[in-house]
Design goal:
This protein has 338 residues and is mainly alpha-helical. It is built from 14 helices and five strands. It folds into two domains: 205 residues, 3-Layer(aba) Sandwich (Rossmann fold), CATH 3.40.50.620; 90 residues, Tyrosyl-Transfer RNA Synthetase (Orthogonal Bundle). Helix 9 links the parallel strand 4 and strand 5. Tryptophan binds next to strand 1 and helix 8.
Length: 338
């Protein structure tokens, strides 16, 4: 059961595209230790995914794959609440109320909205614009205090804060005002092809991204092709702002092997990029293999996944219902007779 004395943490990942090594090292992996000290909810945000066109059968498959991946990465469903967003109908309902508190102007200014509107110019649907309100709803429903997210989501969490503060001052104290929890390590794994840009799920260049489901051959091929730097001391493995490609690979190596960047620089002194890239590949493969094996095992055990999701939805609903009925009362809706 939810422990009322612990502070609450909420985070979510969309079941779209492939979860990348960057998502894992920068986010999901850092969530597992939080489970001890916080009351954690981890959500597969399928409703958010509908804001860009999906193939229904693929969305369904990705949702279950991501659920299994969460567990394979160390989310413990007996400790944390692991659930699918659409299984708890209060998310969409609270989003409607929050829509009446959020302003068109502030949503129109969201960087990610502007960016996605540019990339999906043929499908600038209302959901795309409302996306951050649904996210605020995810967070505020559970009175979550800390939101572990990447830098690209900070603006959305700030909007959730603004909405919470505005609602609280208009209708009296109702929501905990959430804050971002930015991870210190690995939050900036970069593209293998363009090492000044983030390694992003939605990158159309497959060679730029290592996905958590890539097999060892794919990992090796992508790392061999990774862009490196041709500076004056080419082939020197050094972490340096002037060498973004090698610096990124050093970060990946360090996070996957546990060897510090400084020690790795010494380890590869005079060895050249080729040898270094093979070692990075070995380290990445050794991190991915156990996760992939566990995900596969879980996906084969449908009964187990169904039990996890059923229980997760029940535990999440219990909290969500309490918040939503409080909100309905505060805004002046007549309570339903039961
Ligand atoms: N927008 C987030 C992302 O794409 C996913 C998300 C949805 C989320 N709801 C959330 C993250 C609530 C944290 C809290 O990364």
């Amino acid at each position: 059961m939810a422990d009322e004395t612990k502070k609450r943490v909420f985070s979510g990942v969309q079941p779209t595209g492939k979860v990348t090594l960057g998502n894992y090292l920068g986010a999901i992996r850092n969530w597992t230790p939080l489970q001890e000290s916080f009351d954690c909810l981890f959500c597969v945000v399928d409703l958010h995914s509908l804001t860009v066109r999906q193939v229904p059968a693929e969305l369904r498959k990705n949702t279950l794959d991501l659920t299994a991946l969460y567990i394979a990465c160390g989310i413990d469903p007996s400790q944390s609440i692991l659930f699918i967003q659409s299984h708890v109908h209060e998310h969409a309902e609270l989003a409607w109320i929050l829509d009446t508190v959020a302003y068109v102007g502030e949503l129109n200014r969201m960087t990610q909205f502007k960016d996605k509107a540019r990339r999906h110019a043929d499908n600038i649907n209302m959901g795309l614009m409302n996306y951050p309100v649904l996210m605020a709803s995810d967070i505020l429903l559970y009175q979550a205090e800390y939101i572990p997210v990447g830098k690209d989501q900070v603006q959305h969490v700030e909007l959730a804060r603004d909405i919470a503060v505005r609602f609280n001052s208009r209708y009296s104290d109702t929501f905990v005002v959430p804050q971002c929890m930015l991870s210190k390590t690995g939050s900036s794994i970069k593209s293998l092809q363009e090492p000044t840009a983030k390694m992003s799920k939605s990158d159309p260049d497959d060679n730029a991204v290592i996905s958590l489901t890539d097999d060892p051959d794919a990992v090796r091929r992508k790392l061999r092709r990774a862009v490196t730097d041709s500076d004056t001391d080419a082939h020197c493995v050094r972490h340096d702002a002037a060498k973004p490609g090698i610096s990124n690979l050093l970060n990946v190596y360090s996070l996957c092997s546990g060897v510090s960047v400084a020690d790795a620089e010494k380890q590869f002194e005079g060895k050249g990029y080729g040898v270094f890239k093979e070692a990075v590949a070995d380290a990445v493969v050794s991190v991915l293999q156990p996760i992939q094996a566990e995900q596969k095992r879980l996906l084969a055990d449908k009964g187990y996944l169904e039990r996890v999701l059923k229980e997760g939805a029940e535990r999440a609903s219990a909290i969500a219902q309490r918040t939503l009925s409080k909100v309905y009362r505060k805004v002046g809706l007549v309570p339903k007779i039961r």
